[in-house]
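G., before I forget:
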Amino acid sequence: MILVLEQDASREQVDRIVTMLEKKGVKVHYSKGVDKTILGLIGSKQTLSRLPVERFSGVEKVVHVSEPFKLAGRSFHPEPSRIRVGEVVIGGEDPVVIAGPCSVESREQILETARSVKKAGAGLLRGGAFKPRSSPYSFQGLGEEGLKLLAEAGEETGLPVISEVMDPENLDMVKEYVDVLQLGARNMQNFHLLKKVGRADKPVLLKRGLSATIEEWLMSAEYILNEGNPNVILCERGIRTFETHTRNTLDLSAVPVIKHLSHLPILVDPSHGTGKWRYVAPMSRAALAAGADGLMVEVHPDPESALSDGPQSLTLENFHSMMKELHQPAVGMQARQNA
Amino acid sequence: MILVLEQDASREQVDRIVTMLEKKGVKVHYSKGVDKTILGLIGSKQTLSRLPVERFSGVEKVVHVSEPFKLAGRSFHPEPSRIRVGEVVIGGEDPVVIAGPCSVESREQILETARSVKKAGAGLLRGGAFKPRSSPYSFQGLGEEGLKLLAEAGEETGLPVISEVMDPENLDMVKEYVDVLQLGARNMQNFHLLKKVGRADKPVLLKRGLSATIEEWLMSAEYILNEGNPNVILCERGIRTFETHTRNTLDLSAVPVIKHLSHLPILVDPSHGTGKWRYVAPMSRAALAAGADGLMVEVHPDPESALSDGPQSLTLENFHSMMKELHQPAVGMQARQNA
Amino acid sequence: MILVLEQDASREQVDRIVTMLEKKGVKVHYSKGVDKTILGLIGSKQTLSRLPVERFSGVEKVVHVSEPFKLAGRSFHPEPSRIRVGEVVIGGEDPVVIAGPCSVESREQILETARSVKKAGAGLLRGGAFKPRSSPYSFQGLGEEGLKLLAEAGEETGLPVISEVMDPENLDMVKEYVDVLQLGARNMQNFHLLKKVGRADKPVLLKRGLSATIEEWLMSAEYILNEGNPNVILCERGIRTFETHTRNTLDLSAVPVIKHLSHLPILVDPSHGTGKWRYVAPMSRAALAAGADGLMVEVHPDPESALSDGPQSLTLENFHSMMKELHQPAVGMQARQNA
Amino acid sequence: MILVLEQDASREQVDRIVTMLEKKGVKVHYSKGVDKTILGLIGSKQTLSRLPVERFSGVEKVVHVSEPFKLAGRSFHPEPSRIRVGEVVIGGEDPVVIAGPCSVESREQILETARSVKKAGAGLLRGGAFKPRSSPYSFQGLGEEGLKLLAEAGEETGLPVISEVMDPENLDMVKEYVDVLQLGARNMQNFHLLKKVGRADKPVLLKRGLSATIEEWLMSAEYILNEGNPNVILCERGIRTFETHTRNTLDLSAVPVIKHLSHLPILVDPSHGTGKWRYVAPMSRAALAAGADGLMVEVHPDPESALSDGPQSLTLENFHSMMKELHQPAVGMQARQNA
């Protein structure tokens, strides 16, 4: 950690800081430049992270030299993590596709979707039972009934299932029905919920927050890992920017960045990322090309009558043709020349 | 509500949409332009908000003509809401200042702060007991012990107290100790929590989310109002942008915008908004000049040793001199000329 | 075009607006809803775009139903545009790679790079001679001398060359040396320059502005097309967001969006998009997978001594291995399974 | 300047960097921490700014300890700059208001406005003659004719005038007619134009770019100062964010930040900042309360028929009542209590 001091920091201020730090067992390198004085702090990540250095009088800027995450970082765990869900491995050689409707709406809807996406090659079935909606007047999900239907569809098709837990009070109930717990973008910094799923014995899919930096995202993963649950799957779903043509701005660079910084697997959700079904297939191809470990895609047998997120859902047919295309050795320059 | 149809929408698609809408009791105005066809939908806000129009095949764009909030809107409630907390009125003639430390750290710290800010003219005492922190390794607050100390300091000084509730499971406990429940920026769309505080019998201070639009913010207020709690106080605390010199970008325009759209009172938190104590006083003056109903300011007897958010906290002295200045008939062109 | 009127718009205001519009030859559809009154305006894009409707008293919101661009739009020109530069076609079946250093620094540097990228399969050679730099103290490019060296390297290798024109006064000179004129992100709304290159007889590569929406970007292309130059190539190079790990946020969704809205070809610049050489190869693969017509990549024989943008430049070796990889029929699910 | 090395930087890499730096006359402090090695570089700002350190192999991060601007900074020039335009001083005790229409449209329009704003207390008259417009089909200004009318109105009323220069080729012409040269947001990084106005003998008003950081803005001022023109006036006019209710997000915190970092005066443009006339008065009050040296406000005798930016223009009456209010010793807590 480096402290850049204010230009007019007094001798006394500097001495006071150094004394304070040394008392805490931190070694301090003093370095006087032309304009500014800087202090290099050497100590364990633990010790340094607890120092209230930003409030020391005379300190202008604090530069963190080490990443603030440890358990989520590559240096702690150089090999990529592979997370097993039933017979599926997320983070292995093969990309995994999670597919299904935004919300479970009825037995027919979820069963029809499950059978169809299974056939097309999906590895997991998704379906929301508790839906975060901006408006209190919008459909909020079927609740436990939705989870039951989802579990039933999973059982019938042999697909493991995933659904969002929005609320610590429901965690135990949700856990009963699902194979993977999903934490939504709006809950990425719901620290109480992070800790609770960190003590659960199910893998957790952690979506990136609407305006979360990659570092903050990894820190939220750190909350879960730190409670003892090693099975965290990241999911990029678009960030909020000034662009309005797409619902969010899908930040695909996050894929190689996460691969560089962390051992955790990363999926991409092009449905929320773009908000328009038309762009889901090209962005799915792009996500895999960037190195994503898989996709999370919204599929609905009848998007027009969907009770939530219809405009971004693929029909069963669209999903089949996208999956077919993704299985072809397609992208690259030569390939396109021959196509 | 207006539907703009895709240029190549077929006769059948249009007919299907119109039939579907009329069945739901919606009147449809059909209008064919040079390039595009548009449908004007006329019906109650309730009915319209439940239509899955965005997923209708052939629809390119949906334009919402009415605001999506009702209870929070000016048309529903033309007079500004005044919220009474003890002897203080938020939303009345006099701006109200909420002051206190980011976190309650000890009896001495909170008592000393309470006495001092009371003397300087603060109307409420703030102090965090449960702290949302990006890192699991940072100080997370004293918990219930912190609330007890806060309540004690409130009682001694006669200041009503406010503290953040982060978690539905703790709501009952927090409610016992505080006069106003605070919902933090990260929880602005924690819908379960919104509903729960909507059923509580205490006023709620709702901070704007880091990347929430003003409309989304009012929709979150709508969640609380819709559960029966009319006492919602909004608090602008800065949004996330590309600018890095300040911790957030304090969006003071939100003040007149909220005053135009809603009857709810709005406070401004320049401490989180700027992240640097140096900018707290000028932005406090600006907030009041923009029409804010008050301020929420972090004050600490010894910011250098604060366990959280020290760099943005005012010392007791700084707070006193700011309050003195705010009480002077100071700002405006003539005033400055004479100063 | 649709006008949503203010809730309290008076009968007189409405009449005045309608009269004014009808005088201009616009047909008006009047539609009174429960809360709001809306007016549908029917007329040619030309006529409508010149109406000062947003300032009419009583108008709350104006909704543009048609896209504001015409020449750049798909409806005007349904077939994708193919732009020929020497023997290379941009927008055809084969993706095209533009490669070369950020700045031309010396004859050796540009010649060595040109020979190497040619061998690796690049289609055009890039090299800056006039560099936009945030600081007046940074290297600003070799100027005309740089253009000469670039042209020489192009001639020797047979690669067409591209370089940025920053200033209308230099346009004639730059045009002498290059095959494609580049307009940088900071000049995307330098309207004078847009008009001038619109009258030039060379193709123009138009980079997206740091905070430009896709619609604004297409409107800037419209400026060029409107002056008579049909050869506009778009280039996505990342937008500015709150994320700091990457230099910009590469918005790959812009690729399918542009393909949907426009007939113009689109390239992607992953070097500026990410700012780090490490992420250039995966984002290049992703860009092609998303459907980009090619890439623009910074390559330098010795990035460490580069006078600008070294951290995002590939070495010659890195570029060769990336190109080799891009030529393999690589990405897709099956492909990865077999790899 | 500080270099943070990559964790796996080799002994040779470090030696190579140190040798390279010492050859350039830079003193290097070597400091080995638990995880990372850091190098502190000591040398003149000039020398350091020219080092291609970011490209050195083995360097992970470069931390700039000193501000990159010198001439614009407070340390170079501790006293605030006062810029005299005719009899008006910008940056002195009294706030200055620049008022006038977005575009000069006719002699009557500009004369009527000039007389009216003069009477209300405006210090300068604004009026655009060359207008940057997103669409090539929108009104682009009257050109030189507009400048003539503006100059005439200025002469008649005794108000100095300001107008935007968009294009280096027009600079000499614009300079003939105006007292202050305006550089628009879209040209904040038009470096050629910055240099040219830096050699002009007229004060320059430099608007902040739509997505420019405060540091980049000051670097653009540095370009002008570095060419010898000391008379730079900054103008905050809103930045681009995700919020759509206002046209831009007016970043009033920029006012105290600029006051802290720089000696240059800063104005605020609430018309572009909010895009809606309704919010201009409260944000004007807030800007002055934050410490701005003045305002730039759009005023039009008939905003409904304005050829550009009508929705954000005040009528003459609105401007008068705003100015009257701004001259009253109005804002502050006590003041409000008595109001």
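Chain A touches chain B through 46 residues (CB under 8 Å). Chain A has two domains: 2-63, 83-338.

More on Monday.
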